[in-house]
Structure formats: structure tokens, C-alpha cells
Amino acid sequence: MLPVATNPTRTLGGAPGARAGGRALAGAGPGRAPARSGGAAPRDSRWPQRAGAAALARRAAGAVPLRPAAPARRSVAPQAVQAPTAPATASAGPEELSRVWYELGGITITAVKDGGSFAVHVEAAEPRPMVLHWAVNDWEAPQPEVWPEGTNKVDDKAVQTPFRDGRSVSLVFPSALAPERIVFVLKELQPENWINNGSCYSAQLKPPGLDKLVNRVLGCEGESGHWSLKDRFVLANDVLDGFAAGGAEGMAFMFTWLRMSSAKLLTWARKANYQSKDITWMQKVISERMTEKARGHPDPWVRLYARLALAGLPRGGGNGDDIRMGILHIMRENGIKEGHRPGHDEPFLEQWHQKLHQNTTPEDVTICEAYLAFLHSGSHDDYWRVLWENGRITREHLEGMHIPLKAWPQHLPHMINPMKGYLWTLKTCHAGADMDTAAEMAKGHLDGDTSWMVFDVLKNRNEWWVPGKIVEVRKRLADVWRGPGGSRDVLLLDIALDNYFRTLIERTDRASLSRDQLVDMVGLVLDNAGIAAESYELQQCGRLWGRIAGSGERWGRDWGLQALAAAQRVELSLAAYADEMVCHVQPHAAAFGERCGIDASHITNFGEEVVRGQPAFVLSGLLSDLERHLRQAAGAGAWQVVSQVPALGEVVVRSLEDVQGQAFASPLVLLSAGLGGMEDIPPGITAVITQSSTDVLSHVAIRARSQGVLLASCFDDDEWARLAAMQGQHVEVEVTPAGDVVAAQVDPPSADTASAASRGVGFRRLTLAPPAPWSAWALGETQFGAGVVGAKANNLAALRGVLPAWIQVPASVALPFGTFEAVLAHAPNAGAAQTLGALQAEMARSEVGSGVPPALAVARQLVATNLQSPPELLQELSRVAAAAGLPGAESWAPGSATWAPVWAAICKVWASQWADRAWLSRQACGVPEGQLSMSVLLQEVVAAQYAFVLHTANPLTGRKGDMFGELVPGLGEVLVGNYPGRALSFSDSPGAPEPQLLSLPSKRVGLYAPPGGTLIARSDTNGEDLEAFAGAGLYDSVPVVPLTEVTLEAADEPLLWDGGLRASLIDSIVDAGQAVEAAFGGAPQDIEGVWREGQMVVVQARPQHAPAMAPAALMLMRAAASRALLPAGAAAAPLLLARRALAAGASGGDGPRRGRTAGEAGDAAADALATAAGDAGAGARAGARAKETAAAAGFQPSPDASPSRPVAAEGGGPGAGAMADVSEVVGATFAGDAGRARRAAADLASDGKSGGEQGGSRARPAADEDEGRRCCAGNAAGPGPDAPHGGGGGDGLAERAAAVAERAVAAVVERAGIEGRARGAGWTPGAAGAEPAGSGAPAAGGPGTAAMADVVNIVAGVFSGRPAQVRRALADLTAGGGAGPRRGAAPRTPSQAWPRGSLAPVGCTDEDAATGVTVLRMRFEGPDLGAPPVSPPPVEPAEGVADSVAAGPAAPGARGGDERAL
Q1: Which H or E element spans position 1092?
Q2: Are strands 1015-1021 and 130-136 parallel, antiparallel or unpaired?
Q3: 1101 bridge partner residues
Q4: How far apart are CA 710 and CA 681, in angstroms?
Q5: pLDDT tens string 897-942
Q6: Phi, psi of 193 (to 5 degrees)
Q7: 3-state DSSP: the chain helix, strand, coil percent, rounded to 5?
Q8: Is the pLDDT of residue 1445 over 50?
Q9: What is the arithmetic mean of pLDDT over 378-384?
Q10: HEC profile for 70-103?
Q11: CA distances in angstroms from 502 to 526, 615, 619, 713, 924, listed in the order given
């Protein structure tokens, strides 16, 4: 793996779990640098200048050695950007914490932090005799040490300080004495007048204890006996500064609280009354203060949540008394009875008047609108309709208010005009982000052009051009409300326009939009979102999309790849924005629900509803509609297959993260919407399908291929929904030749079959090799060796000095195997060692599937934090590291600031032995606790510009030389760790003129070495990179100094835009891969490396293991699922059944020829198959699987069976000879013996006889071969009943046999998943033939053809685990010797040829033009199979061994039409 942290939650310095989309989004106003949460340094928005000229100059001077340029490749042009530098540290000086102007009192309050002290300055706009009546925190008397001159104590809670010259007061606090906040009111002296701003003024100095503030609010809301909307606003005003000082979490609580209030989930009146002037004043205060937070707070999340809170607040202001007095004047002037005053009795107006007098709220605006609608129409239906549509007010709600409205209004049309005026009075006080009201209130703050544009939008609000005009207007408004003292009315207008923009986009019929219109609309929405979403990342996305949309060459493949990457990046950024918001608000909603008794239906999806309410959310639907067009343009399908094996199991929709530590008794097909990349795949899971993109070379992908688990990403929402709808069903899942994943429902398996299948899924038992005896604390590279350090260290040491000069290997030192145990034996660590031993004993008692033992977390914490380094270790490691040139090693000393973080990193690596997924993987593979040994490799982190992973053999097919690589900006953890988004991916095949670009990068973040560089401690165990177990990424690598995480500026990323740079980098990576592969003797390699200023640095190389075949247990599952095609007993052991059936059919088949019988031919074929299986050796996965299958079926190879010669004896019919040749082809393919495969194929093509039988191989002329294929494909008539049964002559029988055999082998190769190995051995599939005219057996032909058709079906069925196919072929072979004439009998008709039902060859179809794999297509013919001719005793299949049949049962008695592909 790359020298970067494997577990970002512990090593990157950010918040745990942040990598799954939970990062705080960078955001900034104009002129403000982007901010980020966590410990990762932000990246400058400007990409640094490229290093091309400097690198070229160094090359010219010889500082950077040039690699030899291959004729067909372009040399690397060093054009890539340099790694971004950390932003400069701000100069020291006073930090302004807040500055607020209060109209009431005419004062400005400024809070400042200056070094080690805090200060609060209160300045009056107009000087006057006045004192500051103040206290600290929640009205606690300040200590005398901080009293300004002239301060007098008033009582035990407060003091008074006079204003100097009636103008200002300054309070200064040393850090040790500084309170969280100060609180005060003003006392004017001439005349005496107290000013309290509705409650009191405050200035926050330190972030408060949020728990204290939260409990205060929840207590008032849930427990106060007297509580009202006005009381809520008073409290909100009092705690606002505290929550704002708490950052995103604090302000998210404030927003959640006020949103629940505006949604009326919190009571607006509980045994409490107030006057209208009081609430309108408090509404004005809180809305103005919230505007100030939204305008100028330094934290972008605080600004965003303040804006969102303001959107639900009433405007406030106006003349509150006009509400109370206005309704009285209307009633009196229009003859309505009021109190004891005589007049028309109108109970509705009387009840409403009482409410307005004692508890006016924003609901009164809606009531007035509904009343006007009723007055216009005279229909109470309109009254109730408007109440619901405008305010979600029901009759029950009106009648249940503190002052209820139970009466229905009377129709008094003369009240229309008075009520229109009264509605405006209500709106000036209670309306918030109402577009028309806000426009009227804001127009005095706007210039003439902007004001005209606003009202033009309102006048033409339903025209098609309005969305674009809204964006233009909002950009103008931003300059006003963001300015100092910006008006709340302008901001409320901006919020209203933003909401209306979203409404217009949602109204758009997206189905009617062209693909170009979708591109433009995405750009418009991003432009709108960038104005006030307070997300620097969404602004980045806007710039990126602007560049995409501005391209004049849309819809070509290059543009399609760029646009698809840009769309994916926008989706990721939008998802991160949404996820962060949900994480902020949902816990607070749950707290309100619990303390205030809010129904759970309002709480469960609260966070999601908040996200859906954001105007930027409409991007989701637009991008979904657009992506299919972009994929079509880019040539990308709806699926990305990462691990390609067939699978079967019950569909379960659940996160992979949620099932960590479990084991499943029955196979499961898991639909996991997200995939983090660090998860393990538990036993029993046969397939993982996800909606998130997955890097093909990430750790989770490598583990999936190693375990034989299907892993694929689905980018089609409809297809995903179809799969999710199959939850609970048992399905068979396969990858089509076109690269799509298909799932078909099958019958559920029996309990025994499911159990057997589950045992075989995913894991094989491992025994780890013990290390050599420990002899040293630290080793230099020349001392590395097998059993001393792990494969990482040994492979890097092997590469040094053998690679070209332009490919470097980083210097390394290691703590060898046994060092950790020696540290535990160090006397000061005795207690930790004893505790760890007890924890390990507890782990050893855990059952597979019982979950994650709690002892793991305790062990990790113990090892990571409680171990002391022996002095000898420090001394030796410092010496070895300094000799290797590792920076800073010479300064390591006990207790030094330089050694402490190094030791901490080493201990964290050791602790990762007990990481959850690592331990669970060992447990699943049967590795005993304590068998794992871990060395630690120390290297310097390369300050890389780009990182790559390259497989020199295709990771899906195993084809050697068919390279596949992925490339990302920065360091490689974002790639191997499967950070969200795609990497740049490419493939390069032998003989191709140039590599093929498959995808462009869309990842949100990059990781870079910190300023000044750092070292990294890398895990290196004896339990990784094994033949039977990849173990990729299970153990941690920890940088000494956390890496810098950067939000990538995709609009300026050269990988996305610079085709020349891309080509040069890819060519260099391919060349480096070839060099590394050659250094390891031509064995395929999994290589990780980085690129820096024209040089490649290989940081890891390991053998690339071929992808695992589908577990045999899956095949057994398939067989049971397709029981309608499977006779009883056939699934138990198909190879044993085949052997016994062939032996029992001694009088059938080919007939006697020189003493050979069909039974003997079957024995010879069986021995050849077993020999072929064993010949592949332990190093070939496919061979090992075949050998296991053969052994489980009872096969023992003949003593004289040898890979050096064919098994067939001198005698025997053409069926025996051809069978031997088929066995040789299959065996040689598995063994990788190209010469033997070619010789056996030549014998088949020549006359269907064994090479051993004929004395050597012979090549056929091409014309003869073509003729033979035409004869077979066209079903040409062969000789009559009296024709010879041999393979020679002009009867075409050998050619037919060879063609059928060739296609059977192709089917075997495809099903076994060994195409890469087969091609590497020189095997190539034959050309596809046309389907024959008939659908049954050949109309005529010798036994060499007919028996061959049966025998090759047995071969294919055996090797692909299809017992039904074996059963049918056996029935035909033993019943009548195949489809052709038997012992001179007349040819049978097609219906006679397959009397018991079987798979008849109906043709050969080239299903995959890219790979050339030829698929033999078969047709099921005949009624139910009935009982088999031979009923062997049941054989219990060995663990991990299974059989299968084609999915889809045929109806009993059905004839023909059920066509399958082998």
C-alpha cells in the first residue's frame, strides 16, 4: 500500500467517520480564506503554478535522470502541478470575536481576544450620562480584580461602571479570570431610564459549555409551566451568542429549535399572555441579531444556520400596538360588537380579537388571509382551504389554542377593504421571508436598477426566464446584505427569492428538457447555490461546471468523460453537504423529541427534511436525469463490475458496515447503498452490490476478488430499485458479456444445501508461516529477509538497484518480526503484557459470527497508549534510521518531542493487529490468536503530486500483460481506501497503440504530505499477500505527522483537462509496471507508487494473485435452486456419477475398437481429468479448485497418468481418443503448458485421436480446418450407417468432434474464470460457427461425433459444476452411445436422439467480442428426466465443493425452447 494512513479516523487529524462524507464543508465569504473542520489544513483555492520549466531545467542539468524512451510511448512531460502548500499562518494580533450594533440603546458592542486577555468595548453613538449595569455568565458578580476604575457594587449579582464622557466602557479580563460572557443592561441617568433590549445585552468571550445551554433550553421548552412564543424569543436572544460561539454544533441546535417552533412542533402559548408590542419587539431583536450572524460570523456553518433560522422567523418591528388597536378600530368602525360596546354580534371576530390582544403570533397572518378569502367568496370551504394551504392550520388546531377560535366567520363583505389594510399591518410585524412583503420592506435599501429588477421579477414571476433573472438579482442583493450593517429586510428578500427559485426549478418538466438544457440548468442551480449556501465546495463545483458547460464540443467521448467526472464530483459534494447537515441537526431533533414529547413521526426524518428544503437539493434530480446522457457520451455503462464471479443467495438490503463481524448460515446477496472501502466482507456473503463508485484497485475490491465475491456498482436508479424490490427473494446473479449485472429469482435451497454453500463462501483456512527467531531491535534494508520482515519490506529491498534510474524506491528501515513481543517483555510493560494476554484469551473464545468482541477495542487502546519503548530499541532504531537517511532520526532521544510521535505511530501500527476487520478476517480464516506476526516498516512519506496503483495482469480476468491502473491527485490512500468518487482509470493491452482511458477523476479530496514532511510507520505482517488470502489494507499505516487533507479544485485539475499530461503519466506508469514485473521474473505485480516532478517512486510491489473462481459452495447452491432440472441424487457428486455411469455403459458409447470399451474410455477420461486438475499445482487457483472437486467426487488419478503424455491407450474408439485430447487441452490450459495445449488441440483438429495414439501432433491446413468447421456448423450429412467409425477420411467426423470439443473447452474456461491463464498458455477460442439447421442431435455421423457431443458435455459439466448437464449427457451416452449411429444402426431422428431429455448442442455464439470467449449454447429437449440409469450412494461433498446447473427450471413435460449458455 502507499505510505499514507490507512485509517483516517485515527491518523488524519479529522473527526471520526468524516471520510464517509462527514467533513465540514469549507466555506468563505468574499475575501475570506476557506475554512475546514478537523486537523487537516485547507487547500488554497488557487492551484500553484506548474513545475514544468523547473523540472525540464533539472533534467537538462542531469539532476533528474531520464528514462529510456520506448518508441511507441511518449516520455513524461513534467507538467503536473506541485503538491499544494499549506496556507501561511496569520500574523499575530487582536482577534475580533464579535461586533454588534443595537438600535435600542444606540450602542455597539465589540468583543476582542488579544493574546492572553479578553476585552469587551461598549460604545454609545450619542454621548449621554449613563452607567453599565453588568455581571458575568448568568448574572454572577464579577471579581473585583477585573472592575474598571469607578465601578461600584450594586448587590450580590451585579456591579455598575460609568461610561467615560458618556460615550464608552471597556472591560478587560486576563485569560484565567475571563468568563464565558458578560451580560448587562443600560441605565440612563438624566432622566433615569433602564434599557434592556427585551431581556439583556450580552457579549460572548469563550465558547460555552453547550450541554449547559442545551439543557437550559430543553428545560424551558419541556418543563416550564408558563411558556409562550415571546418567552422563546427572549431566551433565544439571551443564548444566541453562546450557541454561535459553539460553532456548527451550537448553531445547528439554535436552528433546530427555531425550526421546530416555526413548524409548531413546540407550543406557542402555555398559560402565558403578552402584549403585541412586546412580541413584535422581540421578533425584531432576534431577527436583526440573526441577520448579523448570517452576515458576518467567521464560521460558514454558523452563517448558514443563522440564515436558515432567519428564514422561519417573523420579521418583527413595525408598530406592535397597531395589531391590538387596529382590530379594535376595525370592529368599532364597522359596527361589530366588542366587549360591552353594542353592535353586530360576530363571535369569530370577538374570539380572534381576544387572541390578537393577548397572544398574537405569525399564524394571525394566515387567519387574516383565510378570512379575506371567505369574505370574497362567501364559502367556508375557502376559509379552511387557505388556512391549510398557507399555514397548515386545521380546525382542531384553532379550537385547541390557548385562546381558542371556535366560531366560524360570518359573511360580511364590507369588511374586505379594512381587512386588507389590517393584513399588511400583520405582515409588517409577523411576515418573514414572504417575497412580496420583503420586497416592499427592502426597496429603500436598494439602488434604482436593483429595485426595478426585483419588482420586474415579481410582476412576471411565472415567466420561463425568471429563474435566470432571480440569480442575477440575488448577486446584486448579496453585496447589500453582506455589507456592514446589512438590512434584515434585504436578507429576507434574498431568502424569499432563493426559495422561489427552487419552486420554479421543481415545477419544470424535466422529461421535456433536452440534454443540453439539463447541462445548462445544472449550471444555473449551482450558480444560485454559490451565492449563499456558505459552502466553498459548492462554489468550486460551480466553477467546475461552468468550465464543462462552456465547452463548445459537447457530447463527444472526451467531453463525456470530463462531464461525467464533473457530475460525479458535484454529486459527491452535494452528498457531503447534506450528510454534514443531517449529522448536525438530527441529534438535536431527537433531544427535543425526547424532552418535549414530540411525536416520533416528526423526528425520524427531521434531518432529511431539512436537507430537502435546501434550494441546492434540486441538483439531485437534475444530475440523475443528466447522468444517463453523460454515460452514453462517455461510453460508460450503468454498471461497474469490480469482481466478476457468479453468485447466488437471498437478497438483503443493508449496509456492509452494519454486518461487520457477522457470519451467515445461508448465502446472501447484499445491497449496500454506500461502501466506505474499509469494510470486510463477512463469511456467507456471495455478492455486494452498491450505488457508490468503487475503485477497482482499492483494498475492498482486492479482498472481494480474493474471496470470490461478486462486487459491482449500480449507477441506474431504476435498476437499483428493481434489485431492492427483490429483498427476501433468492436470486442468481451473473455478469453478462456486455458488462451488466443480472439477477433472476430461483427457488430457495434446502437447509443442508444452504449450510454447505455458506461454509464455502469467501474464506479458506489459513496457517501462517512462523517467523525466524528475533535477533535485533531494528534492521537496515540490507538485513531484510524472508521470515525476518514482511513482504512489503522484502519486495522493496529486492527492487533497489534493478529498476531504471527514473524509478526510485524510498529508503526504509524495519522493526522485525518479534520486536513487538520483545517490547512486551520489557519490564515496565509487564502489566500491559499480562492484560493483553488475558484479552487475547477472551478473543480466542469468540465464535465465528458472534460479532466484534469488546476485548478488541481494549487491546487496541492498551497497545497504542500504554507501552514504553526499551532504551535499546530507541538507540538501535535511531542509528539504523539515520544511516538510511531518514530525516530527524539523529535527534530521537527518550522523552524528546521528536521521538514521542514516532513511538506513538509504531504502537498504533502494532495495535492494528486487533482492528475489528483484521481480527474478524483472521477469525474467519481459522488463524489462531497469536499466530500473526507484525514487523513495522519506517519510510519517509513522498511529497507526491499524483499516486497510482497498477495491476500488470487484468484484475478481473487475470490475463497477463493486460494492465489496469488507477491514478489520483496527492497520495494514494484516497484510492486504496476507496474514498468516495472515481479515480482516473486506464487499461493497456499488449500490442495496443496506446492505453485506453476508462474514467477521469471525481474524488473530492486529496491527501498530501504535511509541510516539512513526515515519516510513516507501515504494517508488514506474515498474514498478507498470501496465495489464498489477499489481506489488503487490513492493518494500519500511520504517519508520524497527520497528512494534510485538501478539497480538490477540479476546475483547475490537470488530470481532468490536460490530455498530454494524462497520456505522459499513463505511459510512464505502464513502463514502470513493465520494469517492476521484469524485476520479479515476469510474474504479474500489484504496484503502488507516486509521481513527483518527473520521477516515479515505487512504494510497494507484491505478487498479483489471480481472481478467485466462484466458490464451489455457490455451485451447490445453484444446483439445489434449480431442482426442477435436477434428478434426485445427481447433485451429490457429479464426477463420481460420471465415472460410474461411464463404467456401467461398457457396451454402449463408441463400441469395441481394438479392445477398448466405452467404460474403459470413461476411466481413461476420468484419470485424465484428475491428472489435469493436479497438474496445475498448488500455485494455480483454478487447478486447486478442480483438484478439490475431483477428490470430493472420489477420483484418484491413474498411477501412470502423467502430464508429459496423453492417458489414452493404443486402442480405443474415437470417443476415447478425442476424450483424451480434450482432457489434454483442459489440463494443459489449467497448468499453463502452452506447448502441450497446442499439441493436443492439433491432434483434435487432425483426426480426433490422441497425440500419444498417433505418435505426434500434426497441423492441419487452414482450408481443411475451415471446411471442418463449416461441416460441423452446417450440420452436413456424414456417411451412412456403414461408414467407418474412425476419425480419418472425408467424413468430417473428426472435424466435428474437434469443433464441439473446442467450444466445450471455451465454455469450461469461461465458467472456471481462467481465461487469463488459458490465453497465457497460448489457448485461443475458435471462431464462432453458425447455428445448425436442426435443433437436435446431428442427423448423421459416426460415434466419434455423437459420443464426443456427450463426452464434452460431461467435461464441461464437471469443470463448471453443472450436475444436470452431466446427468443428461450420461443418460444419452449410456442409453444409446450418443446421438449418432451405434454399431451400424440407422441414425436416430432428433426426437429419438435425446429420449431421456438432455442439453443438445444447437450452435455456437460469440457472446463477447472484446474477449473472444465462445459460448456453447445448448437446448433442453425432452420430458422429465426420470430416474438416472445409475444411482450411486450419496456422497457428502467436502466443504467448499459444490455443483450447479443453469438457472431457470423447465416446466414438466416441456419440450424444446429452453435454451441455455454454458
Answers
A1: strand 1085-1092
A2: unpaired
A3: 1087
A4: 11
A5: 899 999 999 999 999 999 887 888 888 788 888 888 999 999 999 9
A6: -155, 125
A7: 45, 15, 40
A8: no
A9: 94
A10: CCCCCCCCCCCECCCCCCCCCCCCCEEEEEEEEC
A11: 12, 5, 10, 31, 51
Alpha-carbon span 1218 to 1161, nearest angstrom: 10
Residue 700: all three cell numbers together:
475492498
Backbone angles phi, psi at 960, to 5 degrees: -70, 140
Please, what sign has the CA dihedral across residues 581, 584, 585, 586? positive
Helix/strand/coil for 1292: coil
Report the alpha-carbon angle 830-833-834, nearest 5.
90
How high is the pLDDT of residue 1143?
35
3-state secondary structure of 323: helix
Report how far residue 379's alpha carbon sits from residue 377's, in angstroms, rounded to the nearest whole number: 5
Share of the chain above pLDDT 90, in %: 38
pLDDT tens for 694-749 read: 767 676 777 787 677 888 888 888 888 999 999 999 888 887 755 678 888 877 76
The predicted structure's pLDDT at residue 928: 86
Whole-angstrom distance, CA of residue 874 vs CA of residue 893: 7
Tell me how far apart the alpha carbons of residues 909 and 1162 are, in angstroms, rounded to a whole number.
Answer: 57
- Estimate to the nearest angstrom the gap between the alpha carbon of 1203 and the chain centroid: 47
| 432, three cell numbers | 418573514
For the purposes of burial, counting CB atoms within 10 Å of the CB of 50, is it exposed (0-12), middle (13-18) or buried (19 or more)? middle
Return the bridge partners of 937, or none.
Answer: 814, 1018
As a whole number of angstroms, the distance between CA 1151 and CA 916 comes to 62
Question: Whose CA is closest to 499, among 464, 536, 482, 474?
Answer: 474
Angle value at C-alpha 1193, between 1187 and 1194, nearest 5 degrees = 95
Question: Which residue shows C-alpha cell 483424451?
Answer: 1220
SS3 1158: helix
Tell me the average pLDDT across 1018-1040. 77
The tens digit of pLDDT for each residue in 312-335 reads: 999 887 777 888 888 888 888 888
Q: What is the structure's pLDDT at 1311? A: 47
Unique residue bearing C-alpha cell 498530501: 1008
Only one residue has cell 530527524, namely 888
Task: Name 112's bridge partners.
Answer: 96, 119
Of the pLDDT bands very low, low, confident and very high (cuts 50, 70, 90), residue 1127 is very low
1024-1028, 1233-1237, 1258-1262: least confidently modelled range: 1258-1262
Q: What are the cell numbers at 1024? A: 498478507
- Total count of residues recorded for the chain: 1462
**Cell matching residue 1377:** 452411445
Residue pLDDT, tens place only, 1320-1372:
444 455 432 322 222 233 333 333 445 545 555 555 554 444 445 555 555 55
CB atoms near residue 65 (< 10 Å): 13
Helices (H) and strands (E) in the chain, counts: 49, 36
Cα 164 to its chain centre, rounded Å, is: 62
1098: amino acid identity, one letter: V
pTM of the predicted protein model: 0.66
Instruction: State the amino acid at position 652 in one-letter form.
Output: V
**Residue 1079 to residues 802, 1074, 1101, 1103: CA-CA distances in angstroms?**
7, 9, 11, 12
Tell me the three cell numbers of residue 1206: 496423453
**DSSP, residue by residue, 14-63:** S-TTGGGTTPPPP---TT-----SSSSPPPPSSPPPB-HHHHHHHHHTTS
What's the one-letter identity of residue 271? Answer: K
Element (H, E) at 123: strand 117-124
